[in-house]
Design brief:
CATH class of the largest domain in chain A: Alpha Beta
Number of helices of chain A: 15
Oligomer: homodimer
Shape of chain A: elongated
Largest interface: A-B, 68 and 68 residues
Largest sheet of chain A: 9 strands, mixed
CATH architecture of the largest domain in chain A: 3-Layer(aba) Sandwich
Strand content of chain A: 5-15%
Order of helices and strands of chain A: EHEHEHEHHEHEEHEHEHHHHHHH
CATH superfamily of the largest domain in chain A: NAD(P)-binding Rossmann-like Domain
Number of strands of chain A: 9
Helix content of chain A: 40-55%
Radius of gyration of chain A: 20 Å
Distance between the termini of chain A: 54 Å
Amino acid sequence: MIKTVPTIGFIGTGVMGKSMINNLLSASYNVNIYTRTKEKAASLLHQGAVWKQSVASLARDADIIITMVGYPTDVEEVYLGPNGIIENAKPETCIIDMTTSSPALAEEIFTKASKNQLLALDAPVSGGDIGAQNGTLAIMVGGDEEVFHQVLPVFKVLGENIIWHGSAGAGQHAKLANQMTIASNMIGVCEAIVYAKKAGLDPVRVLDSITTGAAGSWSLSNLAPRMIKGDFSPGFFVKHFIKDMTIALESAQEMGIMTPGLSLSLDMYKELANMGESDSGTQALIKYFDRTF
Amino acid sequence: MIKTVPTIGFIGTGVMGKSMINNLLSASYNVNIYTRTKEKAASLLHQGAVWKQSVASLARDADIIITMVGYPTDVEEVYLGPNGIIENAKPETCIIDMTTSSPALAEEIFTKASKNQLLALDAPVSGGDIGAQNGTLAIMVGGDEEVFHQVLPVFKVLGENIIWHGSAGAGQHAKLANQMTIASNMIGVCEAIVYAKKAGLDPVRVLDSITTGAAGSWSLSNLAPRMIKGDFSPGFFVKHFIKDMTIALESAQEMGIMTPGLSLSLDMYKELANMGESDSGTQALIKYFDRTF
């Protein structure tokens, strides 16, 4: 399937996608991109990407197709729609959805792709815009293990911690486990900072005491200082975290698992969105607890 | 107050206390200890500690008194009881409670101690038995800053990350913030592992994907692998975590702060204790979610 220089069709040129495409171009891959308006792709075209005027034309002319879009509905449209990838890609094309999306949808895409001799992987990432820029994303992959090994060179351009987790949907399941872990931890981080402040302590000194021990976490080290400073600029958007937690909760419920921590966190973030914080970073959760932050 | 070689009276010779006393003896302090039964102190007496037959006699013959006991009721008895420390210590003695206990009780002890010209600090720790053994505890201190600096050489024998947080009770508040952070995080860690297992993934591979990123935490790195292996031996006892969370919740409620994550975690741990897991390590929370672990 992979020739000397495979052509990669990439859909999704947001903050993450842009950096990933740049890394693929730097690694000498041919990269075709599709965007609704060509103007938005100007900088990528300048870097050497080639613009395609439809998903269908992108799909027809690719050895590997990578998607990094927004919501499961976007994934569904771009893969399963009448002018979508599955209808138009050549047999043996490897199609990789790197969006954080529903495991059930990943399975559906895999099944439909297989009928057209397409090789589907789900491969969501963690590591954010910095990880995308530096090519250090964690990539969690589901689908056929053999196909995973075939496209591993491409994943290695994009990330560092690249793990195959099982059949179709397994990559999404792993990513949802990641988001679940964060969901409850964010509650604890906020409660501790609000408590410290109300008790009259200096929250920065409290962080100095607690970040290196058993309470330590990425969120405590990286997001708690921003909460204290009142810096709510988005590393990861509240609205995207709500999307991910919603998918995780639905998936957990389908599997009959109770996740009261996830439910509590999702409720809090929905209320936070109602407060007008959808486009803030996830550290804005502190405002749910105390609006004076 | 501190002579060339101060005499330290130490009450509380449990797992933590024993290691701390050993470190003080190694640093050439004179250490007097009190235990209800002398036999239990045999190894410490062999190391050079001197046994006292009552709290009162220990208190009368000390420059610094350190307590590391179990519950706030124990702290209350040993400090405020009729034969307790405050009634018997010499003026200018520095009295340091290192138990994780109630901030309100720490304030009460400080006030009553001051009336007898005693210098009280609250100085709970984190870092567990390993931190106590290696002298690498984090120590969170409340009380007069000047007194804190006077006894800093003693703290430096016991720990590494030693921070003064403010007036009496501030050390306890900082420690409770630590426990609050852990409380909610444990929920997320358990939910993620149960979810991964039920989704048919290998939880160990999922940890490989998620521990180094934004979901990462001390609990995920250190306790999740034990959950997966079914190793529930105590690093930190369920019953002690319940004690700490109960104090934290009471303190938060006194301050009018909502802590739904802490409440949820405490309820789960109480149910876990009802399942017979009081003497397990805190990682046993996974059994609350899934008894097959």
